Amino acid sequence: MNNTLRTLFRSPKFVIGFTLLLVISTFVIGYPMVNKNDPFEMMGMSYERPSKEYPLGTDNFGRDVLLELSYGARSSLYVGLIAGIVAISIGLAIGLFAGYMGGTVDNILTTVNNMFIVIPSFVILILISISLNNRSSTMVGLIIGFTAWPWTARAVRAQTSSLRLRDHVNIARISGYGVLRIILLEILPYIASYVFMACILQTANGILAEASISMLGLGPFNTISLGTMLNWAIMFEAMGAGAWWAFIPPAGLIACFTFSLFMMNNGMDEIFNPKIRS
Amino acid sequence: MLTLFIALTLNFVLPRMMKGNPVDTIALTLTQGMKDQNQIKQVYETFNKEFGLDKPIWMQFLVYLKNVLRGDLGTSFGQYPKKVGTILANAVPWTLSLQFPAIITGWLIGNFLGAIAAYKRKAFDKLIMPASLAISSFPFFAFAMIMLYVFAVTLHWFPIGGGYGFNLLPSISFEFYASILRHYMLPFMTIVIVMVGGQAIGMRSMAIYELNADYVLYAKLLGVKDNKVIRYVFRNAMLPQITGLALSLGTMVGGALIAEIVFNYPGIGSSLFSAIRQLDYPLISGCTLVVTVAVLTMNFLIEIVYGFLDPRIKMAQLEDK
User: Fold this and answer.
1) According to the model, what pLDDT value does residue B51 have?
2) What is the dihedral of CA A218, A126, A251, A150, to 10 degrees?
3) What is the largest CA-CA distance in chain B?
4) Three-state secondary structure call for residue B54
5) B 242-261 residues with CB below 8 A of A?
6) Between the N and C ends of chain B, which has fewer C-beta atoms within 10 Å?
């Protein structure tokens, strides 16, 4: 384990991604401690230019953008993480089961899976979101995770079905181990690195999905997230007012988040997947 | 077909799962201030009948299926008494003419750049890869906002939004088409750039994977010319990219739809946005339905094209005959 970590930190891509993520996290956790104001409090006029008092100006409600940004990033990351974990859990369960069982079970699950891949998850996301009247951040994360699993399931199934006829799995089967035990002990460890990487990607996608759905006005209620900030900026004509500080920082922060996660994923990919390292 | 059926079912069931039905909400706002009990009752009955809510749920579903097949998507709540079908018929051409060329162009350029990056490596690769990765980290619409701010608001190169100039009426004149074209450029470029980013990354890793394959080494040892080897590699790396296009189409179309809102482009994305703001359920499910059907159709088309391009599938089909 220690060895793997050391190899990871020798990959420049991973280090860049990790550092960036660390910097953002420090800001997200640190800034609210320095600036103890309530992010919802309307302090200034609407769309005030960046100044000493408000380093990134104010938004349409006259709220401090920098402070909002730190709270928004926090809830975006929270939603992303929940979405990532949910998507991975469902995808893993279905993928492992389908891949290991093979035969009819596999066929049925794969067909269902393919259907959900082709139906735009964005559509399901909208349909579920409009049917819920009270959306908390947790709820939004759950919904996103619930629509994002088919990709993971597909990849996990492919890897599992190539593993299931390996000798050590056969031996475990002959020794009379149960299905669950074989899957957990003999197959899961072999795809662990992949699962971890997929989890990072799903989190990144979760952050992007949260931004999109909030942009449509279907985001979490009473919460500042990066997506809702962009939604306000569009609804209240920040563009026409020339208030770049109301939308470029949140847009940039979303990109930084996903960029750092993509970079980490890419760096890990090169290590665990020697073929593309060359 | 089965997928389509399931998509339709989801489209029907999900909005109906919500607490409190939307028709009640509308009827409630209409009956506010009305004192006469009979009149209130009448309003409710009219609405329930109009939206078919007086029948059992399975009947509603059958009616819904029948209507959808006839192209009748119901009546909009927000823009009552306009039909959802009419609203969508106005929006679809805009979205289609924007997204279809943009996605294809972006896909082609992206694959080309990715293949070059994989083959040349070195400086070129070092430049293109991080750039692509950075671009594809932006959600479509956030990138659209930045593009709009830089090129339209600050530099005034392009108009700020809409499908055509405010002062023009749709007509068959040179001026009108020129205006459409000017409004078209920025959304088009945004979608292309974001597409290029994502595709270049995918193609690069595919091409590197192929470059390491045994047949490349074998061809090189045989002394086959570089150009020819690249062509083999490109063709082999292309196939998974086509599948990738089919699989990620839904996400891409969704992203581009939201970008429409930023540009205030009169397509489905903008209709969806205003429908969500007004809680116009029939219009929302009309939009999602159109998007789903479009994506499924495209998928089907891509599968057919794939059959032509992949020699293995072509062989299998020939053998069947």
Assistant:
1) 61
2) 140
3) 93
4) coil
5) 246-247, 249-251, 253-255, 257-258, 261
6) C
